[in-house]
Design brief:
Distance between the termini: 88 Å
Shape: extended
Strand order of the largest sheet: 2-4-5-7-6
Number of helices: 9
């Protein structure tokens, strides 16, 4: 019997040792896989960022070259024999190119801020109707240059939401600018502010462009993706517009949704909760306080 006990004890020790060794191997293997996955993810991020910057290099140079070219022609107007109408046209081209260039620079700064985590959210009540009108006015220069018409709803109503006015405005600018970018000359962009059935304040932007396939829509929502159309290397995709807008809206506790079909355009919606949902309706609070006071008085 003692010999059997020793044998059992020895077998148990070996099993325990084998289990510990396998556990160590599994832990080491998992660590290696996690490190490899992290390395691949970092490499993909660097590659995507490099592609994004390469695309933005094209996007920045195009309007800058136009500004330099037309400004030079205006400076040497006498040599070119420009009449006042031509001078005015070239000045308009310069303004349009400057607006486009500023938009690209703002996008770069916003993407950099999002990556660094330095974006602050300062919440307040937002007048969606007024915000939409201001965004449409800012986009008019770019829309006119593209030959696109922005059509707000005729029966505009007052809609108020709760969030960061500056960040929500930036998100809206990205949606409208992306819609302009995706539209064909002579196309229309429909925008409206409304209240959802759940009481959320919402802005919808719909273009009449080519739309996206399901795969294309997934890529459009990735910050550093740029869709190329054909072999001419023209950057007519959405850029980072949808991705940045989605991030800004969701940082405020808002909702972002997008629907698209190839050949039928794209509809994007951004929404925020109503101010009453956060702090309550002041009128309801006042009425409630009066009711409590009256009940207490009756009880006394």
């Amino acid at each position: 019997m003692p010999a059997l006990t020793n044998k059992t004890h020895t077998s148990g020790s070996r099993l325990a040792e084998y289990g510990e060794r396998m556990s160590e191997l599994l832990i080491r293997r998992r660590a290696e896989l996690e490190a490899r996955a992290a390395r691949i993810e970092a490499e993909l991020a660097i590659k995507a960022r490099s592609e994004f910057l390469a695309n933005m290099n094209h996007e920045l140079r195009t309007p800058l070259n136009a500004i330099i070219g037309f400004a030079s022609m205006l400076r040497d107007g006498e040599d070119y024999g420009l009449n006042p109408e031509q001078q005015r046209t070239y000045a308009e081209y310069i303004l349009q190119s400057a607006d486009l260039l500023l938009g690209h620079i703002n996008t770069l700064l916003e993407v950099a801020a999002l990556e660094s985590g330095r974006v602050e959210i300062n919440e307040a009540a937002i007048d969606f109707t007024a915000l939409l009108n201001e965004a449409v006015e800012r986009a008019e220069v770019r829309a006119e240059a593209a030959g696109v018409e922005i059509t707000p709803q005729e029966d505009a109503v007052e809609v108020f939401g709760w969030g960061d006015p500056e960040r929500f405005s930036q998100a809206l600018d990205h949606l409208i600018q992306t819609a302009v970018k995706l539209s064909h000359e002579g196309g229309r962009i429909h925008v409206r502010a409304s209240q959802t059935a759940q009481g959320w304040a919402e802005i919808a932007v719909r273009d009449e462009g080519d739309g996206f396939t399901n795969e294309g829509l997934v890529e459009a929502l990735e910050a550093f993706k740029e869709l190329h159309r054909g072999l001419d290397r023209s950057f007519s995709g959405p850029g980072v517009g949808y991705a940045v807008a989605k991030t800004f809206v969701e940082m405020q506790g808002g909702r972002f949704s997008i629907e698209s079909r190839a050949g039928q355009g794209t509809l994007a919606r951004i929404s925020l909760p109503p101010a009453e949902a956060v702090y309550g309706d002041p009128q309801e609070d006042e009425d409630g306080a009066e009711a409590v006071a009256e009940r207490d008085h009756d009880a006394a």
